[in-house]
């Protein structure tokens, strides 16, 4: 085509085609626009060569106030206007020559729009995304932040993350993007493909908002200290808010600070009650993310070890009639006109399945309820129990061997599989790794009390050991035996539950045991009574109405295997392993006497 009319028609048609694509396609489909924009530019260059002027003629300069001037007598543009037009033509011709020489197309149709209409050249590449309602499936492939390594430098990728921090600098903004415990630095910098409006939008996104970003992975020689990905950053070409965070109750950065370092630097921290009131924000800190991943790992390792030794996972009821431990600390409720309570443990049911039901070796991970009005650092009204029960042949030491090996397996597994998480926890809550022996240290209750007495502590051989005495004994054992983890058995019979087997050589003692980490109990267990007559006798001794536990008693009338087991408090294990000072730090949504929400 060679005439002005033909070129005008072609330019208008191409412009209409571009507008149609922008209307029909999602705003992120740059690849659909680029070839069309390149064709439009080529037509305009051809028009200018034929017509002797740019398509559409020279634009009038915008003025804030148009002064009143005398109408010119001469026709046509002034000398000043001609000079401006000439400079504009030269600039356009130079751009066209450069693009023709390199073969590079325009980055987007927005370049033309900015020159001709004053619109933002990158308007399509930022802004809040439509609500995701599972209406479409795009061709985007999202990457996880831990995958962003040096082997991907130069690639364009999509990432969905939380905006952890934002720092505006000159013509750009640095964004720290976070996924779980990982983070990467993103940069939005004004340039040919990033407009001032895009920078302004990115710098105005509220912290903790969910964003989708498309960017190019760039190598960074100097380590980026604020990010887990130290030597790559994301040069962002496109950014959209998926979910905009409203006013935060506190900054995640404040909640994740080391208290000692914050105090020294005069920086704010967040009180425990405030953190727990907004737990869904508090759990975003690196340390909390790591704590609950390790908690999950303890359950996984518990299952792995027991599954590999012939144990069967069971699921027992938590709504029961009567008290599962035969005690008074139960949450009572009405069950369709009958009195009932929440289970204090799966004790009766794991005995009934292992010793009486033919399974022989069972375990369960489930909730445990204790109506104890204890507002201490280590007590909860609801916690997660890791329980197991197993048939034995001759001695409860068989169960202790399994339990000792189980904990060594869990400790080893945490150190081997959760190095990253342990590092993150240590940054906020510094702690000493626990020491443990192979096989674990075992002492009797009498030996433990003797150690206390030798240290000048007045402890009783007939009464249960108190919490302060447990801690003191833990320090003595650590100093003498170089271990934080140990087993103590042969507790006085009178301080253990009615189903505990008495010691055959001393009727005042029992075949029971507790396990300790850093001087605090984590497991309580024993050989259980499997003889039905002895079981009834022991229940009567504790003044427990047989009728209230009749189904449990009946289970032992039809042949029961000798057996032993124990109950482990998950939150307490994690708390003590990590050297944390409060069990609420290891309970996702803790329940204590003063907290029932969230």
Task: Characterize the structure shown.
With 598 residues, the protein is of the alpha+beta class. The protein has helices spanning 4-24, 30-51, 79-102, 110-117, 196-203, 252-255, 259-265, 272-277, 279-282, 286-307, 347-356, 397-417, 419-428, 445-454, 467-481, 532-541, 550-555, 570-577; strands at residues 156-169, 172-179, 182-189, 210-219, 232-243, 312-313, 319-320, 332-335, 338-342, 361-369, 382-391, 441-444, 485-489, 512-517, 520-527, 563-569. The chain has an eight-stranded mixed β-sheet with strand order 6-10-11-16-15-14-13-12, sandwiched between helices. Strands 1-2-3-5-4 form a five-stranded mixed β-barrel. A three-stranded antiparallel β-sheet has the order 7-9-8, with no helix packed on it. Strand 8 (332-335) and strand 9 (338-342) form a beta hairpin. It starts with a helix and ends in a 21-residue tail after the last helix.
């Amino acid at each position: 085509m060679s005439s002005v009319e033909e070129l005008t028609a072609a330019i208008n048609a191409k412009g209409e085609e571009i507008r149609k694509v922008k209307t029909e396609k999602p705003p992120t489909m740059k690849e659909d626009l680029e070839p069309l924009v390149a064709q439009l530019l080529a037509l305009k260059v051809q028009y200018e060569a034929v017509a002797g002027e740019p398509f559409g003629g020279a634009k009038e300069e915008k003025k804030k106030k148009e002064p009143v001037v005398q109408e010119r007598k001469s026709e046509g543009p002034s000398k000043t206007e001609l000079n401006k037009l000439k400079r504009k033509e030269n600039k356009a011709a130079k751009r066209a020559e450069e693009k023709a020489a390199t073969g590079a197309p325009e980055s987007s149709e927005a370049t033309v729009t900015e020159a001709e209409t004053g619109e933002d050249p990158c308007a399509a590449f930022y802004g809040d995304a439509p609500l995701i309602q599972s209406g479409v499936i795009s061709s985007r492939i999202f990457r996880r932040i831990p995958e962003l390594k040096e082997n991907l430098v130069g690639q364009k990728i999509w990432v969905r993350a939380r905006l952890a921090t934002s720092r505006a600098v000159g013509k750009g903004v640095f964004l720290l993007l976070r996924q779980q415990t990982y983070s990467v630095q993103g940069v939005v910098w004004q340039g040919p493909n990033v407009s001032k409006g895009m920078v302004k939008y990115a710098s105005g996104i509220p912290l903790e908002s969910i964003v989708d970003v498309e960017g190019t992975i760039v190598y960074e020689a100097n380590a980026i200290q604020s990010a887990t990905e130290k030597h790559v950053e994301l040069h962002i070409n496109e950014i959209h808010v998926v979910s905009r965070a409203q006013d935060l109750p506190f900054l995640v950065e404040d909640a994740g600070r080391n208290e000692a370092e914050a105090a020294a630097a005069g920086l704010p921290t967040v009180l425990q009650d405030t953190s727990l009131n907004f737990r869904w924000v508090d759990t975003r800190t690196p340390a909390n993310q790591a704590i609950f991943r390790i908690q999950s790992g303890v359950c996984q390792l518990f299952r792995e070890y027991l599954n590999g030794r012939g144990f069967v996972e069971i699921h027992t009821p938590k709504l029961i009639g009567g008290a599962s431990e035969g005690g008074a600390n139960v949450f009572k409720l009405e069950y369709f006109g009958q009195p009932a309570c929440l289970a204090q443990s799966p004790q009766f049911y794991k005995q009934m399945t292992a010793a009486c039901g033919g399974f022989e070796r069972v375990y369960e991970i489930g909730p445990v309820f204790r109506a104890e009005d204890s507002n201490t650092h280590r007590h909860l009204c609801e916690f997660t129990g890791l329980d197991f029960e197993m048939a034995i042949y001759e001695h409860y030491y068989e169960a202790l061997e399994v339990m000792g090996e189980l904990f060594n397996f869990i400790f080893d597994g945490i150190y081997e599989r959760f190095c990253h998480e342990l590092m993150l926890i240590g940054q906020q809550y510094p702690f000493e790794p626990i020491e443990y022996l192979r096989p674990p240290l075992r002492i009797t209750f009498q030996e433990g009390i003797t150690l206390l007495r030798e240290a000048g502590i007045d402890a009783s051989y007939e009464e249960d050991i108190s919490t302060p005495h447990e801690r003191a004994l833990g320090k003595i054992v650590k100093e003498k035996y170089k271990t934080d983890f140990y087993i103590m058995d042969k507790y006085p019979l009178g301080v253990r539950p009615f189903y505990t087997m008495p010691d055959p050589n001393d009727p005042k003692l029992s075949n029971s045991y507790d396990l300790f980490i850093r001087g605090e109990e984590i497991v309580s267990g024993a050989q259980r009574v499997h003889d039905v007559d002895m079981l009834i006798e022991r229940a009567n001794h504790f003044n427990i109405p047989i009728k209230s536990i009749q189904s449990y008693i009946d289970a032992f009338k039809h042949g029961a295997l000798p057996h032993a087991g124990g109950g482990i408090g998950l939150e307490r294990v994690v708390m003590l392993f990590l050297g944390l000072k409060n069990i609420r730090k290891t309970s996702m949504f803790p329940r204590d006497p003063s907290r029932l929400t969230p």
